[in-house]
């Protein structure tokens, strides 16, 4: 597995080289930007920093770099709760 390095306090907007899930990176980065510490030990959302969403953003950034991407097999599309190939 390739080593991916970024500053957890100031992650880059674009996924770093070696990031295995760029979409997750972008979503987690947006969440990270929305939940920043303010001078009164509060998050921009008003909760004590780090709020649960700030932690989720940090976890998302890390996960985007270390998890293996999956490609769901949609070939078995029959049955309830699955994608249907029938026209609507």
UniProtKB/TrEMBL annotation:
Region annotation (Disordered) ranges: 1-21, 68-88
UniProt name for this protein = Uncharacterized protein
């Amino acid at each position: 597995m390739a080593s991916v390095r970024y500053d957890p306090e100031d992650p880059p907007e674009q996924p770093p080289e070696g990031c295995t899930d760029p979409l997750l990176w972008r979503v987690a980065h947006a969440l990270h930007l929305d939940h920043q510490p303010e001078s009164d030990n509060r998050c921009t959302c008003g909760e004590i920093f780090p709020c649960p969403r700030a932690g989720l953003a940090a976890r998302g950034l890390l996960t985007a770099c270390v998890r293996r991407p999956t490609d769901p097999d949609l070939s078995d599309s029959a049955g309830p709760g699955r994608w249907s190939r029938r026209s609507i």
